[in-house]
Specification:
single chain; mainly beta; five-stranded antiparallel β-sheet; 1 helix; globular
Length: about 140
């Protein structure tokens, strides 16, 4: 399984905080059409539990610590997002679960497509059947 992370560029201004930025089709391998974020979740919250047929995303955690559990149907791995300068590219046909390691962590997502319910695979057995025989690396 190929895990692709990005380093989010950051510029710190003395006494004024840090600006972090990435750009679609430049720092991430796709145009960005939708951005959303999840916040206010208690420690131990599990979200996700799905895959996408075509959607590609970059996930980052500007505050806190969130474990991303990835599964391509053959291998599973965990990636910890615990720094605002680390992003994770999640390709299509990748089952994902997000686990809040710290209360009030924030998970941000930039996606290459608009919301489309028909793109979701929400049943794990259906996901395994869908990836059978596919070359997804």
């Amino acid at each position: 399984m190929i895990i692709q992370t990005i380093s989010i560029k950051s510029v710190t201004a003395q006494g004024m905080g840090t600006l972090s930025v990435f750009e679609g089709s430049h720092d991430v391998p796709f145009d960005i059409k939708r951005i959303y974020y999840i916040h206010g979740a208690p420690k131990g919250t599990h979200r996700g539990g799905h895959a996408h047929k075509t959607l590609r995303q970059v996930l980052w955690c500007p505050y806190g610590s969130i474990r991303i559990r990835l599964d391509n149907g053959r291998e599973k791995t965990d990636v910890l997002l615990d720094s605002p300068d680390k992003g994770l590219i999640v390709e299509h046909y990748m089952w994902r679960e997000m686990i809040w390691e710290k209360k009030d962590s924030v998970l941000c997502v930039a996606a290459d497509s608009y919301y489309d319910e028909s793109d979701y695979i929400r049943d794990y057995d259906e996901f395994l059947e869908a990836v059978k025989g596919k070359d997804l690396d």
